[in-house]
Amino acid sequence: xxxxxxxxxxxLTVVLLWxxxxxxxxxxxxxxxxxxxxxxxxxxxxxxxxxxVDLNERALTLLLAGDESPLPTVHDxxxxxxxxxxLTKKLGSTGTxxxxxxxxxxxxxxxxxxxxALDAQDWAQRYRAVSACGDLRxxxxxxxxxxxxxxxxxxxxxxxxxxxxxxxxxxxxxxxxLFDLTSSxxxxxxxxxxxxxxxxIQSLQRxxxxxxxxxxxxxxxxRDNRADEQHLLALILAIGQExxxxxxxxxxxxxxxxGHERLTAATLRSLQSMELCDSMIGEHIGAANLMLNIAAIxxxxxxxxxxxxxxxxxxxxxxxxxxYAAAQTLMNMGAYGHRALLERQEDTRPEVRHMAAFAxxxxxR
Amino acid sequence: MIITFxxxxxxxxxxxxxILLAFLIINGTYTYITFFAFRHLRESSEAAPDLDxxxxxxxxxxxxxxTIVIPAYxxxxxxxxxxxxxxQINYPRYEIVVVNDGSTDDTLKCLKxxxxxxPIDRPERKTIxxxxxxxxxxSERLPQIWVIxxxxxxxxxxxxxxxxxxxxxxxCAIDADSILDPDAxxxxxxxxxxxxxxxxxxxxxxxxxxxxxxxxRVKKIRSPxxxxxxxxxxxxxxxxxxxxxxxxxxxxxxxxxxAFGIFRKDLILAVGGYRKTVGEDMDVVLRLHRYCVEQExxxxxxxxxxxxxxxxxxxxxxxxxxxxxxxQRALVDSIWHxxxxxFNPKYGRVGTLGMPFFLFIELFGPLIEFxxxxxxxxxxxxxxxxxxxxxxxFTISILWGMWLNAAAVxxxxxxxxxxxxxxxxxxxxxLGSLEYLGYRQVLAVERLIATFQVSQTHWGxxxxxxxxxxxx
Lengths: 365, 472
Hints:
The structure holds 2 protein chains of 2 kinds. Chain A is mainly alpha-helical.
């Protein structure tokens, strides 16, 4: 230490160190104070936001009851978000805004503010702006949101664009637009767009659009050879989940035509969701591809007694997961399945007996 | 300047300068990391997707199903609670595989009683060699719960066994004394859904001690009274909210905590599963990086702060020392086994940034700290210490540390699961700062010892406490 003092002036060092200490001391105090302020600010902000949501909710209640008083005017993105949240709370994620309500929303000035915020430098602001656009449910925001999504690089924001876009769908052809949008991003992962398709289909159903009118758009998507297989899978699963039974033949035809295993498995899952039976199910029970085999076994639940023996044979599969799926399916097939399980309890092969006994025990519970 | 000093042969001065430089580099790095994390978390907090939106978009059958593997060795005190918490998560399709790693207490009996286990003839797909499996059970009441009873082989072996039995493409490893937040998997699964190239993701691990738990869920996030636990809370906040956020953003994340991480199963199998070492969590992430680079696979490894797993930290000093001893051995072992990646530009930022960070800041940091303390004592004994300078330097180092602690507590405000009361935040920041009065010094010595015990592969006994807020 003595030697250091020879190199650098002792007093200068001490003064410098005291200055550093002072800076640290002040900044620690500042951090502690800002910690308190930040907590208070966050609390105040969330309270204010909640008040705005409540205010909007009350105004929406009056409006929906036939009162002609306008919704509160909004001045910033925070207030737009509050209006969006109130709309979601009031109408639910599946509710529809009628023309009077849409007119009232337009008069608040919210759409212009949300669209302006799409140009923000801060990605979080852009994210909130897109979310707000979706919550406002104004059909005219669909085009700007899709256009914005094409130019947006941030995957989180792109994802929320799909969500907002699906909420804003008002015509069947817009499903096609969304499909093209998802196809434009090869880095979008498996199935993210299934949720989007489902919301879009729900949006159209809420507007009273018959599923048959979706035909042209869905046929376009299903037949698009450029489309990534993942997006097709998502669409097929969405059709199943939304129970669009009128598309059963289209799905089966397309799966047969393309012959891709993953598409076929998705179609089988879709049939299972729609609780529909098709000869395609029986054709794939016992398939060499485990994924296909299991999907077919699970889809067999909705089929009649003819398929029981085929499912029952799978109890002897060398793969445990296939045996397990077969046992579960038979458990859910009612009297026919129960009878098959009883028969298999007498099987000579121990693994079959074991699985049948396990299923029967589970069934009795 | 250093050359001039050397030329006059003043090695003592050189030593002082080196220690000072190391101090500045280490603290400077942590300060930069804190600032970076501050900016990132502030932005993310504005855009954290709310749960309704996540559910709407991820109600997908395509949301990849997850196998949760819980390795357990003598965990009768906490395991049932951990599994119960895991059964309450929001996720469309998942299974829980509990691997009883030859427990010598009543762990298996507790599981049988709690979940009504029945034996099932489920063959093992022996992709990775493990110790012998004695029996497989499935729960009568909750069929997504599977229990594998096997001979003792260590945590890595238990995880490998879980891998062999897992059916789903994503693999989540959690500790037997942890509580998974109900939305944690959904938030993680959402990232796997968006990012096609994501191969592994780690969530936040937060301290359970002091929190109020009701119905296997954390209801109130509170700080405990114990000084030791508060110091650890600050360490966790610094490590996760600052360190991992920044390293993740710099594509240099080398560790996903064994307490909570999700991996693509096919890739873990491709690298041969977990290696039998005390630091299997860091080692597997390093080997995943190496494998993907060598196989030219496009990949991403993320840290996501929103999903949370709550874990109990040691509440007594001997347990803490054992834990830190193990962590240091794990660090040394992982870096040594993957040393070909160190400073190797072929491995991108992992080799040129992540590995050097862990080597110089995390591994050598405590050693340098120890040498600094030793020098301090020696200079004092030999009357070579300028008391004014020493006092000022020591004060600065404490104040800088306090600043980092206060900043870490501030970072906590930007995440979803935060300490709501200002009193709790102040208590953590203030009590956490007491680490400079003995705690750090003792840990520095322990970590120094651990560095030379790297050949030891034992875990050390861990005393488990019942989950707070629950009856024992």
